[in-house]
Design brief:
Number of domains: 2
Helix content: 25-40%
Radius of gyration: 23 Å
Distance between the termini: 18 Å
Order of helices and strands: HHHEHEEHEHEEEHHH
């Protein structure tokens, strides 16, 4: 669906329910609703309670196909420069800091590689022979404190603990990884943050106003699979009705109940 089709069909669906009693919605507002609807649908695809079939991402071939263009991979190798910038804030002396792309929306799978030797005199072949891949387990700070403060609970050498960390002001995301051995690599398969749907150039359409969505102001089409466009459009109209004509929202919601 093109941006013009999104815009025109949004008007048709919105006006057919809201009639002329509702205020008109401009290009910027429609773009906001469409972008918000897109983000909600992507999140709900990974949350079984967020869709009517109660299916998760892996339970539906349609969902896997819908989101295939958003699924990316990234390998982050240990950087002493990155680590030195943050190690003063480490929660453990076994912590190492890694960076991942700012575009990460949801992590699907993650693993790490650890080195079982601290010696710097080994050859590359010897170092490689003493490395192994292990799984990564995301933890909350409460969960980590329970492990850390339990004298009978030893650190799990076969798992890496991941803690979230602030990335404010950076053009990448920082994660704190914890393992008794040296972590030398962090690998993820993730869902990329969906680009905003911007129906027209805001600088041209709204001269003199600094309008943007997620930092973007130029016309941007929906990057998701075409099979999701209709669902995004219907959800965007629901969001608009909830704001401007809430008494009519049940009508539109019932109409859309046949959608996934």
């Amino acid at each position: 669906m093109t941006n013009l089709e999104f815009s025109n069909e949004f008007d048709i669906l919105y006006n057919s329910i809201a009639t002329n009693a509702a205020p008109s919605i401009d290009l910027y507002e429609k773009s906001v609703y469409l972008t918000k609807a897109q983000e909600e649908l992507v999140k709900n695809y990974f949350n079984p309670k967020g869709n009517k079939y109660q299916d998760g991402f892996e339970n539906s071939s349609k969902r896997r196909n819908d989101l295939s263009q958003l699924i990316k991979g990234y390998n982050s190798t240990f950087s002493s420069q990155i680590n030195d910038n943050f190690k003063q804030y480490a929660i453990s002396d076994q912590s190492r800091f890694f960076k991942i792309p700012k575009s990460v929306f949801l992590i699907l799978q993650e693993s790490g590689k650890i080195s079982c030797s601290n010696s710097i005199s080994l050859t590359d072949e010897e170092i490689e022979s003493q490395t192994r891949k292990v799984s990564v387990r995301p933890e909350t700070y409460d969960e980590y404190n329970v492990i850390k403060n339990n004298p009978f609970k030893k650190a799990d050498k076969d798992k890496i603990i991941r803690l979230d960390y602030s990335s404010e002001g950076l053009d990448y995301i920082i994660v704190e990884l914890i393992n008794p051995f040296n972590i030398i690599e962090y690998n993820i398969r993730y869902v990329k943050y969906p680009s905003p749907i911007i129906l027209g150039d805001f600088n041209t359409a709204f001269s003199g106003e600094s309008l943007s969505i997620n930092g973007e102001s130029s016309s941007t089409s929906c990057k998701l699979n075409d099979s999701m466009h209709r669902e995004i459009l219907d959800r965007a109209v629901e969001l608009a009705l909830a704001d401007y004509r809430p008494e009519l929202l049940p009508v539109k919601t019932q109409m859309n109940s046949r959608n996934e």
